[in-house]
Amino acid sequence: MIDWSRVRQLRDEVGTAEFVEVVQIFLDEVQEAIDRLHKDTNRLEFEQNMHFLKGSALSLGFDRFSKLCQDGERIAAAGKADEVDLISILKVYDESKAVFIADRGANLT
Q1: Per residue in 12-25, pLDDT tens?
Q2: d(CA 50, CA 86)
Q3: What share of the chain is helix, strand, coil (3-state, %, to 5)?
Q4: Positive or negative CA dihedral for 23, 93, 44, 55?
Q5: Alpha-carbon distance 40 to 46, whole Å?
C-alpha cells in the first residue's frame, strides 16, 4: 500500500525538517483535489484531477492509490469517466493515509 523506500527517498531529498511540511502540503492538496472531484458531478475535469492525484500519490509513496488513479485517468481519457469507481479509489486513499500516519514512525527511522 505504501512504498516506504520512496517515502524515505523523499525525506532524504527535502530534509527531515522540511519533510513534515511536505507531507502536510501533500495531504492538503490531495484533499483539495478530492473536493474538486466531488463538485465535478459531470466529471468534466475528472481526467485532470486523476492525473494530479496520481502524481501526488507517487511522490509520497501511496502506491496502491496512485495505481488506481492512473487507471481512472486512463479510463477518463477514453471518454468513460462515468465508469470510474471513485468511491473505491477514495476508500483506498483513506486506508493509505491511515497506514501512512500509523506506520510512518516505524518505517522512517
Answers
A1: 999 998 999 999 99
A2: 10
A3: 80, 0, 15
A4: positive
A5: 7
